[in-house]
Amino acid sequence: MSYSDGLETVIAAHTVLSDVDGQAGRLTLRGWSLDQLVGRTTFESVVRLLFDGFFEDLPKDLTARIGQARLQVYREVSAIDEALVALPVVEGVRALMARLVDGDDLTTALTLVAAPAVFTTALIRLQAGESPILPDPALSHAADSLRMLHGRPAGPGEAEALDAYLVTVCDHGLNASTFAARVVASTRAGLTSAVLAGLSALKGPLHGGAPGPVIEMLDAIGKPERARPWIEAALERGDRLMGFGHRIYRVRDPRADALKGAIRRLAAQAPQRPGRLEFAESVEIAALEILKAHRPDRPLDVNVEFYTALLLEALQFPPGAFTGVFAMGRVAGWLAHAREQQAGGRLIRPQSRYVGPEPLRAA
Ligand code: SDX
After folding, report:
1. Mean pLDDT across the stretch 54-81?
2. What separation in Å is there between the alpha carbon of 209 and the centre of ligand 1?
3. What is the pLDDT of residues 203-239, one digit of tens each?
4. What residue owns the CA closest to ligand 1's atom 1?
5. Whole-angstrom Cα distance, residue 83 to residue 291?
6. Which band of pLDDT confidence, cut at 50, 70 and 90, is reported for residue 344?
7. Ligand 1 within 6 A of 244 CB?
8. Is the dihedral of CA 115, 117, 121, 123 positive or negative?
9. Distance from C-alpha of 250 to C-alpha of 253, rounded to nearest angstrom
């Protein structure tokens, strides 16, 4: 047995769900490469792709079932009180999801797919002093999520952009939050418990908590000519640049360009903040050059969160809610991995090496 810091060299599961090729910079979901899915299929179709084989009587199209699940889970919105509204959005989402009953069936799973969208949008509106919006089960998950956020139908290209985001982030191998979900599923605790574990892990700034701080970084830099000095000072302080680096990718995260493409398609249909994407690209170029000089031994490239921040900003989600939006997509991966772990996995219980004080000898 050997110790592996951060389990970096450990293969802790065999999975049919996704493969993250860190050398080639390629993401594969059940045999489909990311570029065959993003902008070409819907989030609902990818949920079905991930769930295929893990649930009995899976309908061909999940759109209506997920729509009904949004309506069902909306009843929990009445439980939102001032205390929940005062929390960071992802913590409010977590508290509300904790009220959902545990189970291992498809209805429980689709309720859990629907819940982050209903709760995130309701909490954003309540934090802004507005009332939550009743879901419309006839719409796609992306279109209804934007409608619940803005209180109006999604604008041209907006639903497609959010759908592209949800597809891009729905599953990504054994990342920290998915591993947490598998650990809990391995004890047979149930899908709600597994999703709550994933959501709690996702919240961390080293993981799904990174996109919000990307906006803070861009706003702190402010102008292209200030990118280099700002980045150099940050690295001098020992700060991590949010949106850069990855445990697996040693080249560019393929999702970054998938999301950049979604931003460009959105901008072609609905004019965005002039120059925002170009400014972000200038910051990215500066960051990559400086990181290369700072750490010549360690390839540090852009990851999914950098352009996630731009896309969610363009869709007018507040940065404080970006992690809740990440959960709207990743919940599908947590559920599929939880079911895969239940289907064939053992209880996850690694060893530890005791390095504490020797036991005291009885006097
Ligand atoms: C996600 O696993 C997944 O698949 C996650 C994810 C998913 O879809 O689920 O892809 C989503 O979480 C993307 C990552 C989002 N997080 C960030 O953008 C936060 C900033 N990035 C880092 O903190 C870091 O790159 C990690 C946490 C993502 C990965 O870190 P590792 O693999 O543990 O690498 P490390 O911390 O050992 O870093 C190695 C060296 C370190 O130098 P030393 O401390 O050894 O001197 O590289 C440096 C780090 O300081 N480094 C960075 C850096 N990332 C690593 N230095 C500056 N800025 C960074 N972003």
Report:
1. 97
2. 12
3. 999 999 999 999 999 999 999 999 999 999 999 999 9
4. 207
5. 41
6. confident
7. yes
8. positive
9. 8
Question: Cα 28–29–31 angle (5° rounding)?
Answer: 75
Token pair recorded at residue 125: 């509106």
User: How far is the centre of ligand 1, averaged over its atoms, from the C-alpha of 164 (Å)?
Assistant: 24
Phi and psi dihedrals of 293, rounded to 5?
Answer: -75, -35
Q: At what angle do helices 322-344 and 89-97 cross, to 10 degrees?
A: 40
What is the residue-wise DSSP string for 22-76?
TTTTEEEETTEEHHHHTTTS-HHHHHHHHHTTTSTT--S--HHHHHHHHHHHGGG
Domains of the chain: 27-205+322-344 (1.10.580.10), 211-314 (1.10.230.10)
Catalytic (active-site) positions = 246, 305
Q: What is the pLDDT of residues 284-306, one digit of tens each?
A: 999 999 999 999 999 999 999 99
Q: Model's pTM, two decimal places?
A: 0.97
* Residues pairing with 244 in the sheet: 302
Cβ-proximal residues to 79 (8 Å cutoff; 6+ apart), any chain: 96, 99
Q: Given strand 18-21, what is the order of strands in its sheet?
A: 18-21, 26-29, 32-33
| Residues contacting 167, CB < 8 A, separation 6+ | 37, 38, 41, 42, 43, 46, 329
From ligand 1's centre to the CA of 277, what distance in Å?
23
- From 170, 203, 290, 303, give the residue whose CB has the most ligand 1 atoms within 8 Å, as the site to mutate: 303
Q: Is the CB of 207 under 6 A from ligand 1?
A: yes
Other C-beta atoms closer than 10 Å to the C-beta of 339 total 22
Q: Among 8, 217, 240, 304, which residue has the most ligand 1 atoms within 8 Å of its CB, making it the best to mutate?
A: 240
Give distance in angstroms: CA of 197 to centre of ligand 1: 21
Could you tell me if the CB of 109 is within 6 A of ligand 1? no
For the segment 140-175, what is each residue's pLDDT rounded down to a tens digit?
Answer: 999 999 999 999 999 989 999 999 999 999 999 999
Residue 237 burial by Cβ neighbours in a 10 Å radius (0-12, 13-18, 19+)? exposed
